[in-house]
Amino acid sequence: MPAPIRRRCQDLLEPGEQLGYLIPVTAVWLGAVMAGIDCYVAVTDRRIAVLTGSPVRRGGPTEVNLQYPRTTRLGPVDFAPTPTFRLGKRSYEIEDEYVAAVHAADAELAGLLPEDPFPDI
Questions:
Q1: For labeling, which of 36, 53, 57, 82 is most exposed (least CB within 10 Å)?
Q2: Span between the terminal Cα atoms of the chain, in Å
Q3: Between the CA of residue 27 and those of 16, 47, 77, what are the distances in Å?
Q4: CA distance linking residue 22 with residue 13, whole number of Å
Q5: For residue 119, is the peptide bond before it cis, meaning its omega torsion is within 30 degrees of 0?
Q6: Any alpha helices (H) in the chain, and if so which ranges?
């Protein structure tokens, strides 16, 4: 994830909110439009936020569009034909390389991740 995008996403979060996972997604829902818009799902220590930008201008997100409690699961991921997960009533497509981030965010909820052996690095 490019540093400028990560910084822009962090700037949209609340003061002191820690960004754990940042997953670039394509919003594919058609129910209330938004088909094919690039977004980011930010999994923080407090919540899950869907960050969106302008459909006309590229350059990263400009607002928090939706938010869910941190206790919300992102998975399971459906792999046919493209990796997709549902968050609320909306579907989001992701690149293969970010499937692990979805699984890791869900594993945190179940306490399945090992503690970081180098927390100060």
A1: 57
A2: 19
A3: 27, 19, 15
A4: 12
A5: no
A6: 3-11, 99-109
